[in-house]
User: Fold these one by one.
Assistant:
Number 1:
Amino acid sequence: MSDAQVFLVTGPTGAMGEAVVGKLAASGHRLMLAARNESRLKEIADSAAAPDQIATVVADTTKPLLARRAVSETIDRFGRIDGLIHLVGGFHVGPVMLSDLDAYTRMFQANLLSAVSATQAVLPQLADGGHLVYLSSVLAREPFPGFGAYAASKAALQAWVKSLAHEVKHRGVHANVVVMTMADTEEARAQRPHMDFEQATKPAAVADVVDFLVSPAAGGLFGVMVPVLGKFEFSTGLMAGPPGAPQLNRL
Ligand SMILES: NC(=O)c1ccc[n+]([C@@H]2O[C@H](COP(=O)([O-])OP(=O)(O)OC[C@H]3O[C@@H](n4cnc5c(N)ncnc54)[C@H](OP(=O)(O)O)[C@@H]3O)[C@@H](O)[C@H]2O)c1
């Protein structure tokens, strides 16, 4: 397989889309971008430098039929497909007693079942190895209060990808996850001025790791969860150190 590949990118219309699409296109990969929001899809495609490398399809790839159609369009346009970059996701915050079952259904639909649908469409078309990349959250393993539905759906995604990775590794298909925390975007900063965005994840840092995961240099990685957390840390009063010592995380 040459270094330049063809990927279906599902859900590039969110906060991570522009950085991931820009990086993969700059590396020479050809991309079919699939999402429901047509105008945003076009903006993302136009934001990357090489228009001949990027095509778009308006589709809800959480629907198996539409996911298969997006894969067919990828192969019609570029002649083959080498993998999936799955950016579809959803977010919910709310205490258990204020989150109804619909919130849980939406989280599992957006964060787990979307990945299943897109993967089932792409996998049968990967003849000679390939790459499947998913995005998750640090909260899957260490959830904050109020993040139960979101964290559980991302934890389910991670367990599912690990199982998938074992299924497909013998035919050279790599399934891996990038684990991040809140993306440091202008919009997120405007919505949450009280937060310390020095601890947020830069979209460009995630894009770099996605690009690495689809490269030959990541040939030994199957089913890994790659943390791209920047300067994120869980704060705890126990970090204070012994009496009289400075705070150990601020030396
Ligand atoms: N942004 C963050 O701070 C952050 C933090 C941790 C993890 N992540 C994860 O990183 C990935 C990318 O993040 P992001 O912020 O760029 O994306 P996002 O806003 O979570 O979702 C990306 C796109 O997914 C599509 N989508 C969402 N719910 C859907 C549904 N129920 N059915 C079909 N499509 C749906 C939407 O596209 P259309 O409406 O155009 O179809 C949306 O623009 C996601 O998996 C996200 O959970 C993000």
Note: The longest strand covers residues 130-137.
Number 2:
Amino acid sequence: MNQRDFISYCQSELGDAYVLVESKDQVPYLSDWRNRYHGKALAVLLPKTTQEVAKIVKACDQALISIVPQGGNTSMCGAATPNDSGQQIVLNLKRMNAIREINPSNQTMVVESGCILQTVQEAAKTQGFLFPLSLGAQGSCQIGGNLATNAGGTNVLRYGNARELCLGLEVVTAQGEILHGLRSLRKDNTGFDLRDLYIGSEGCLGIITAAVIKLYPLPQTKWTALVAVPNIPATIELLSLFQKRTAALLSGFEMMSKDSLDLTAKQFPHMKNPLTNDPFYTVLVELSDHEGEEHARNLMEQVLEAAFEAGIANDAVIASNLSQAQSFWTMREHITMAQAQEGANLKHDISLPISELDTFITETDQLIRDQFTGVRIINFGHLGDGNLHYNIAPPLGVNASEFNRVHEEAIHDVVYSQVEKHHGSISAEHGIGQLKLPDLEAHRGSVAHQLMRSIKTALDPKNIMNPGKVLP
Ligand SMILES: Cc1cc2nc3c(=O)[nH]c(=O)nc-3n(C[C@H](O)[C@H](O)[C@H](O)COP(=O)(O)OP(=O)(O)OC[C@H]3O[C@@H](n4cnc5c(N)ncnc54)[C@H](O)[C@@H]3O)c2cc1C
């Protein structure tokens, strides 16, 4: 099949309206969220059913056309952007957005991969359940993309990341076969775990078309507080204190540095930190409780009192209603948006053993400031699970693209060698994509890298699934 026949075939299978071949129609699908990567595509395809996806992948397999699976296109590492050859297709799943089932007895939901995360959360809520995956891009990212990147977000501390929230998958393999794995079992030890291979594979092994996801009882109440903390060791002590005293009720523990909140207030003036005296670090704590309002509020107050007594907190404000709690979360979630508005910056989505966080930050801040005078270090993260977003913006007044062009490699080298030294990971939740592809082998080691290659070759021998991402 040549390219022209391939396009005609897709048009006959999907309908002309869902095969975008004109450049003007393709624009939203060809660049990444950070506007760092720009590609071209032979066509952007918008299938509606698993069968349509299977037919297209079969045709791609025959015509040797490579496929870039795409969800909400919010990847932070260029994982869903085609290359500039104009020979790849983008297969965007947004039309596969049906919620196939909500099963209250199983506490599961069967969703198609193109469902927007927020829609999934809302559908679960209408039935009295919580789907806990929660992240800043939830209004645009899709559940298929969340699973393909094993997304984390703000609730990992209590509920785990996307992998832990998924029981079964329906996948179209690289040969266009349908793997029917929509099982809602919590125990299933029947050979190699294929589901776990596809989760986190960033579209390089197959296309996730639907998933069985786990639901949880909706907490009766949530109490949210912002706490001013003098330094990182105090932040870690505060985390331990909350873990000891509130156990499984602790559902959020987000750390935000003074610089990250100053930047957010600069870009979004209505999002000022309500804590006065400019704390060095602000922690957002959330308790989710099934025992009624008073229980959680009392606990929150008791732990905060103990924190004041221990000298690990200087100030705190407990949200007095839902809308105030929401405003705390909105401020936290807007740090990424504020950075994007301020200009290009160098992102490091890393994780570290919690016991290493303080030394990592102290040493790395020093190394970066010594070598790159005037840079702004914006750090914040899901501290409860050791996930730090350690981002570097150029000195004020300096052209960001030029600064990044000259210093990007050297800055990554400093940060990633520090990550290795402190036994961390160079990608906590965003994945590898094309951004971190050059760093993966050194980080994971040659044995792990070779095993990943063997898996890729076994499942996608013609290398048509998202080539150039994750593995070179
Ligand atoms: C403002 C903002 C905040 C964010 N916050 C967080 C956060 O807190 N935690 C976090 O983990 N991430 C965060 N992210 C990044 C995060 O990875 C994505 O938001 C999300 O998980 C990706 O989903 P998506 O649908 O946009 O996927 P895309 O960006 O479209 O794709 C991502 C990868 O998945 C593959 N893919 C997509 N759909 C499928 C499918 N159906 N089958 C197979 N492969 C597929 C693509 O090929 C690509 O490799 C944030 C992003 C933004 C913009």
Note: The pocket of flavin-adenine dinucleotide is lined by residues 33, 68-76, 79-80, 93, 113, 135-137, 141-142, 144-146, 148-149, 151-153, 202-203, 207-208, 336, 429-430, 466, 469 (CB under 6 Å).
